[in-house]
Amino acid sequence: MKIQFLGRSIKIQLSVVLLCLVLYSCKSINPAIDPGQPSTPPPATAEMNVPLKIPKATLDKLLNGQIPSILLQEKGMDMGSGIKGDLLLKRNGKISWTALDSQRIQLTVPINITGEVGLKPKGLGSLFQSKLPLNEDFSPVFVIDPVINSNWGIGAESFELVDLGGNLAVEVLGMQVDLSGLLSKEIRKWGNENLTGGKEIASLKTLVDLAWSQVGKPFEVDWTAGKTAFSIQPEQVRLREFFDKEENFNLWLGMDGKINSHPVDAAPSRPFPLPKLSSNPNSANSLEMLLPLTISYDRLDAILKENVEGKQFRADRKTTLIPSNIKTKAFGDLLAISMDFIAEQSNGKSLNGTLFAVGKPTYDETTQSLIFTDVNFKMESGSLGAQTSIGLKKGKIIRQIEKKAVFPIGDLLDESVGSIKVRLGLSTPISNMNITDLEIAPDGFYPTAYGLMIQMKASGKVSVDWK
Asked: What Pfam families does the entry give (predicted)?
């Protein structure tokens, strides 16, 4: 997927803005001084927190779709009291449940028990070798404290058999033998061995992997500096789960990670793996990403050369400026532009000189424009009169800066909002997820040793429609 940022017309606007920065600067600066090290840009990060509210009907689908049909299958089971058997416990209908509190639910699981039981081969068992067949239906009732383990497996903190939901009795030597207690014992044993202590009866990992395969894949940004690929590398995934009074299953899902930038031909082919889960105390609905877009000084120089160098620009009503040899670089936290120029005056005279100007790139949210503040410059022309003339026009120059050194990017931001919404949209078998209230704007401009970094900040919320 591509996010289209800047076209040719925007390149021209950028060129005009940078030229205005040079033409209408009004203070003196010494380009020979050491401006100090530029500020370190904050790390490029991705942060998301989504309070998911899974309706009871959706959780019904998950439970009935994830819990396996065969719950227990064992041969030669020692059932105590001299009895052994071969048992198969299978689901026999739809599982129903109700929430008892924020952590525990009561499950009713219809099951069918088939198999056979007999006496152990000793004592009376040596005389009666035949086994008695079993085929009974039960609806046992369990109370469990469900938990999502760090690997997305679903298990239980505790397991309790409240009611067997039927009786199991066989006739041996003309006597009725009630095996309900033995069966209850085996079910409790099975629950403690297979559900608690980190064990799992179902898993959400398939759904999670499906979702992450959509959201976590590297994506491309195409703008004036060329194409750049980005990938999200999760460092922490957090979760809290609980039931509310309406028996909805609430999941507070959060993720923190870093955003890596890559050359397009060297982007990872698949998402980074997800780390194990940790606890999440945050109930907010928020999404925030910082995308570092860097335009190299060579690229800035090329844009200026294409659109500015050798062309005539009016400095005032009597003077026309023709720039050449334009170079950009960092000057501490400021962007510096140097150029040679020929100034042609209406009286037929001309002069050669150099200009060195600096300014701080800033975003004006009101006008959705890139502007420059803290403007400063130094001019050397070999003409004291020319330098003095510019110094006397300070007020006019300031007004010219305010009027001309503006780079509108509102349309660019609107296009980006639509692209990011499409990129972060998500569809799974149980839900559709969309980004709402998305806003994107420059969060900072950082002249670096290699180019001008523009950190674009995207923020919004996540809405979910359950199927």
From this structure: DUF4403 (PF14356)
458 and 335 together in one domain: yes
| Domain finish residue from 200, 226, 249 | 200
3-state secondary structure of 300: helix
pTM: 0.74
| Mean pLDDT value across residues 385-397 | 51
The pLDDT confidence band at residue 229, using thresholds 50, 70 and 90, is: confident
Checking 27-33 for CB contacts under 8 A at 24+ apart, the result is 27/375, 27/376, 27/377, 28/376, 28/377, 28/378, 29/356, 29/357, 29/358, 29/376, 29/377, 29/378, 30/378, 31/331, 31/336, 31/338, 31/356, 31/378
Q: Is the pLDDT of residue 278 over 60?
A: yes
Residues 333 and 452 in one domain: yes
End of a domain among 200, 233, 260?
200
Sheet containing 70-80: order of strands: 70-80, 83-91, 111-119, 132-138
